[in-house]
Amino acid sequence: MTEPQSFRDGLLAAVPTLRAFAVSLAKNSDRADDLVQETLVKAWDKQDSFQSGTNLKAWLFTILRNEFYSQMRKKRREVEDSDGVITARLSVHPAQDGSSDLNDFRKALELLPEDQREAIILIGASGFSYEEAAEICGCAVGTIKSRVSRARNRLQEILGIKGEGDFGPDAVSLQITTTISA
């Protein structure tokens, strides 16, 4: 443990060389000043861990270097968005619409004949090929293709889907999120 006054004097004496080292790492005087300040704060907080009689300057340089590399790692994960363009594009549509759409789809699926429901679930939800679905159902591949086609058409009728524009957010939500991100 060191005397607070001598530790403080050692910190102050090291500032010019710490700053020079920080400038060489950061290539920016403002960032270098921030690094030196952070180094001094950390050193002051951890002065109990400094062993008297060892090299204070080397200890401070180690703290500064570690802080610099920690900030660099952190910065790699960050995305600069000072004008808010990226943030504005991160808008999401309300989750309740998706839940409501899923409930509507489940109800429509229940209205399909058993063979069509089975075929569309095997192909669309379970990811089987037409050949695999035909084998599972014990029928011809053409029969499965026909059942899936009829099921899709019937689901579109039940759900009132006329085209791609009927998927996703409603017109009001789409207008709001498009206006925000423009």
Given as residue ranges, the uncertain stretches (5+ residues, pLDDT < 50) are: none
Number-wise, the strands total: 0
CATH level-1 class of the largest domain: Mainly Alpha
Fourth CATH level, the homologous superfamily of the largest domain: Winged helix-like DNA-binding domain superfamily/Winged helix DNA-binding domain
Rounded to an integer in angstroms, the radius of gyration calculated over CA atoms is 33 Å
Q: How many angstroms does the end-to-end distance come to?
A: 59 Å
| Major β-sheet annotation | none
Question: Would you list the SSEs in sequence order as H and E?
Answer: HHHHHHHHH
On the 0 to 100 scale, the average pLDDT is: 84
* The CATH topology of the largest domain: Arc Repressor Mutant, subunit A
Protein structure class: mainly alpha
> Any guess at the CATH architecture of the largest domain?
Orthogonal Bundle
Helix content percent band: over 70%
Instruction: Quickly count the helices.
Output: 9
Structural shape: rod-shaped
Compute the number of structural domains. Answer: 2
InterPro entries: RNA_pol_sigma-70-like, RNA_pol_sigma-70_dom, RNA_pol_sigma70_ECF_CS, RNA_pol_sigma70_r2, RNA_pol_sigma70_r4_t2, RNA_pol_sigma_r2, RNA_pol_sigma_r3/r4-like, WH-like_DNA-bd_sf
Protein name: RNA polymerase sigma factor
Family: Belongs to the sigma-70 factor family. ECF subfamily.
Domain RNA polymerase sigma factor 70 region 4 type: 104-155
